[in-house]
Amino acid sequence: AQADIAVIGMAVMGRNLAMNIAEKGFKVAVFNRSPARTDEAIKEAGDLAGNMIACHTIEELIAALKPPRALLLMVKAGAAVDETIDQLKPHLSQGDIIIDAGNANYRDSVAHDKALGAEGFQFLGVGVSGGEEGARHGPSIMVGGSPKAYERVKDVLNAIAARYEGASCCGYMGPAGAGHFVKTLHNGIEYADMQMIAEAYGLMRSGLGMTPAAIADVFEGWTKGPLASYLTEISVQALRSVDPTTSKPLVDVILDSAGQKGTGRWSAIEALDLGVPASAIAAAVEARGLSSMRSLRQAVNGALGDAERAPIGSATPEIIADIEKTLLTGKILAYAQGFDVLAAGSRQFDWNLPLAEIAKIWRAGCIIRSRMLDSMSKAYSATPAPESLILDPDFAGELKAALPSARKILGLAVANGHPVPALTSAVNYLQQLRTSRATVDLVQAQRDIFGAHGFERIDQPGAHHGPWHTGAE
Ligand code: 6PG
């Protein structure tokens, strides 16, 4: 046996991870349910195939691996993971490690850890972000599971991860479940960030009458400022692309109906479950959902007429700077919400999630990599760590400076019929948080009137009821 690790599942992510591992000098055994895919992967690997061992049967795979065996699964989340584990199990020895590196629900990872652990095997639930390119040249890696199992594969995972100023973007998040929980929230933030960029695009496109190419130029400028990020960069790329068949901007021929595989929704569900507001993430998930309700959209469009989107102004540098600050406000708040869910999950499950480390390993490799994450890692390195990113003095200062622009732009957007659900959710969240007197006093009154739920008074201790006006006096 000579392979350090196995990669199972030779679709593009698995293949790229295997090549990445081989390139870093490790021997990797590769396996796919249909053996033809394994051979294709070896062919594609070229010179790197020297460090790869093609296995066509599970028996060959097991024989190729150094004990305790480390088997990394890169198969579709859900049923395919369960089936693969069931197929492997009869061949494993005590102490062998199954690594689920797909976009699993963290609850599944907790269950796998329990079930495999009871049979003497080890399990790691590992979040991998960075898409195909990341898998091939350096993803962000979020590991959950026993430290002992991590120790066995630490060198491989750290070697293949992205680097930020030389530091590996692979980190140990905590027990099984923690890795996939962190990856899920990464994706929730990813959804919010993408939706907000799209909303800023919409404001410039239909609110200022700009062309995709002109908006690409604006976004390119933003890649040099506080919004510098991979998602801003690829938005430039997207808006500059032209459809070869129609010569129209490529975005204009894309059906406006967004797909989703579950991680964004899970983030919103976990947030609700934990009682943490993550309104910007939820709004982004809902925006994708609404976009795909095509027949309802058409019916409403027919019944009420097209949204009469009026201009919000003309494309002056001032208004564009205001839109940049609006996006900055929304983005800080969406990340703050995402980190709050992480912090709440950490408390709830007793995981002790390393928030500063999470921000650090998200600085390169993953889809939400951005300049802002470096500041976030610094914010969470403070002792004590801030209760919310909003309370970090630098972010508080940025929000304070940008908020007037956001209020102005979102006011114009709503008044002129432009949908901006994620940006407004984020800003409403901040407005609610900073208000010194919320209007739920009336909600408390209603609860007491219909259900005698009682309320606290601002001037006296204890529980109080009414007296309520009966209509008789
Ligand atoms: C990543 C991505 C990746 C994938 C997600 C999102 O971090 O590399 O998040 O995991 O793109 O599955 O996909 P959906 O948008 O289809 O939910």
From TrEMBL:
Q: Name the enzyme's class.
A: oxidoreductase
- Give the matching SUPFAM superfamilies: 6-phosphogluconate dehydrogenase C-terminal domain-like, NAD(P)-binding Rossmann-fold domains
PROSITE patterns per UniProt: 6PGD
Gene3D superfamilies, sorted: 6-Phosphogluconate Dehydrogenase, domain 3, N-(1-d-carboxylethyl)-l-norvaline Dehydrogenase, domain 2, NAD(P)-binding Rossmann-like Domain
Q: Name one Pfam family in it.
A: 6PGD
Q: Which reaction does it catalyse?
A: 6-phospho-D-gluconate + NADP(+) = D-ribulose 5-phosphate + CO2 + NADPH
**Pathway(s):** Carbohydrate degradation; pentose phosphate pathway; D-ribulose 5-phosphate from D-glucose 6-phosphate (oxidative stage): step 3/3
The EC number on file is: 1.1.1.44
Keyword terms: Gluconate utilization, NADP, Oxidoreductase, Pentose shunt
Q: Where is the 6-phosphogluconate dehydrogenase C-terminal domain?
A: 179-469
Family according to the record:
Belongs to the 6-phosphogluconate dehydrogenase family.
Summarize the subunit comment: Homodimer.
Q: What does this protein do?
A: Catalyzes the oxidative decarboxylation of 6-phosphogluconate to ribulose 5-phosphate and CO(2), with concomitant reduction of NADP to NADPH.
UniProt xrefs under NCBIfam families: gnd (TIGR00873), PRK09287.1 (NF006765)
Which protein, by its recorded name, is this?
A: 6-phosphogluconate dehydrogenase, decarboxylating
Q: Which organism is it from?
A: Labrys miyagiensis
